[in-house]
Every structure is written in structure tokens, then in C-alpha cells.
Amino acid sequence: MANTYQNLQKSHPCFGGNRNNTGRIHLPVSPGCNISCKFCDRKINDDEERPGVTSKVLTPKEALQVLEKALKLCPEITVAGIAGPGDTLATDYALDTFRLIKEHYPQLIKCMSTNGLLLNERAEEIIEVGVESVTVTVNAVDPEIEARLNRFTVYHGKVYIGIEGAALLIENQLKGIRKLADAGITVKVNTVLVPNINGDHIETIAKTVKEAGASIYNIIPLIPQSDLSGEPAPVCAEIDEARTAAGKHIDVFRHCQHCRADAVGLLGGKDYGDMIYERRVAGSDTFSHG
Q1: 35, burial (CB in 10 Å: exposed 0-12, middle 13-18, buried 19+)
Q2: Which own/partner pairs from 204-209 qualify as long-range (CB within 8 Å, at least 24 positions apart)?
Q3: Tens digits of residue pLDDT in 169-226
Q4: What angle do CA 132, 135, 137 make, to 5 degrees?
């Protein structure tokens, strides 16, 4: 039986459940991506605190070893998630990792993030490995707007550019959300807020994904970088306005912390990533061990 949204609100720190005494680990096993977002800048480094960044990319077996080590250091971890640094469905590594977690640590909540391009066709595999929560990044439900945020989409070996690629992505995202929601899996939708591009579109996105079956909606402020380095990041008033508009239709998530793809520990508390991944301290030639 799938873990319900109501249960996750009590047990999953990223849904607000026991945030001060439950933890999560992100396992960076997904190297590549099948869409090219204009604001994305995936990197391997030790010091940037944002999505798409990790110290290293692990194999599924290495991820299981890291998880064992993390649980010894931080037994409060209740959630094993995979959020990159690439897309979790663009390769098999994320699903293979979840199969290992299901076998060795069945008590852990399993969650993943995806751009949703392959969500519809891989939904049965997600259900089979026991994933309980899926976050889908939906930045527009209008292909003309999505095309301004996305360089291209690679689908089954073919490159789709512009509105054609954007329309394909949106169609697959919404079909996938419906399929997972119908199976009882909790779906959270992320939207990167780019005020000059999708700022007036947020309410439409929220209404559309709610109708497709999403339970909660998260607005992520743009970090100006890559092709959108010249776009301003939204100010607090713009974020609040977007949340208010979305909140007319769906529960709104309000404590996203721009977590790295290899985050470990308690939200708002100690992060064990330096110890788990042996990150180097910025400006130092030595590894951090706490």
C-alpha cells in the first residue's frame, strides 16, 4: 500500500514532518540529463549549496555503502532520496539504487526528483521499486513559455528544439503525474520561478498539476546562472505573490532549502555530507571530517 500524502506530512522532513528530528540523504547516482534547461549548471564540487551539485557521482552499489555509513552517523535519517545531479530517469542508476534500498533498508521512505520527460513510460518501474514520493519539475504548461526556459529535449535519441520539444515534455509530465497519482504515489511539483518568463503563469501551472493529481507545489526562486544569468532572481514579494496564486488551487511547500544532490542530515541542522563524501573544505588542501 502506498504511503499517503497525509502520512508523509508526518514522517518526511521535506514535507514538514518532524523536521527537527528526522533526516534525509540524497544519493547522487544519476549523471546525465535528457533536457537542457537554460538555468541549469550541473557541477562536481564541494562548496556550492544548490541543486545539481555533488562532490561525486556514485554507482548503485557505492550508494548503498554510503547509505550504511550515513545511517550509522545519523540514525535519524528516515528518507533516502535521489535528486540528481542529472535526471533520475535518464539512466537506470536511480531505479537500480532504489531496488537495493528496498532489499536492504525497507524501512526507509524512498523519494526521487525528475524532470518528468520519461515519467509516463517508467511509472510502472517507479511503483515496482517502492518509491513513495516523486517530485516533478514543471516550469510551464504552455509550450511557448517552456520553450523560453529550455534549450532542447532529447527523447529516444532524437533532439527536439523549441516549442516542439517543450510540448512533448509537458505532455509526458502531465501523463506521468496522473499515472503515479492514480497508483497512490504522492506527487510534488517544483517550479523554478523566473519572474519575467513564467511569473504570470504560476497559477495556471498550479491549477493544471493539481488537476493531474499532484498533492503539493513548491516554488523555487531562480538562481541566475548559465543562459539566464542576466535574469533577476525573484524578490520576496514576487515569491509570496506566486505562492498566494498557487495556493488557491494546491497546498504550497514553503521551506525548500536549495539542497545539494548529495545532502545528508537534518533539515536546518547538522549536515554530514563533508564526512560521508569526504568533501574538501573551501580554501584548504585537507578533507573535512566534521
Answers
A1: buried
A2: 204/141, 204/142, 205/138, 205/139, 205/140, 205/141, 205/246, 206/245, 206/246, 206/247, 206/248, 206/249, 206/250, 207/248, 207/249, 207/250, 208/141, 208/174, 209/136, 209/138, 209/141, 209/174, 209/177, 209/250
A3: 999 999 999 999 999 999 999 999 999 999 999 999 999 999 999 999 999 999 998 8
A4: 165
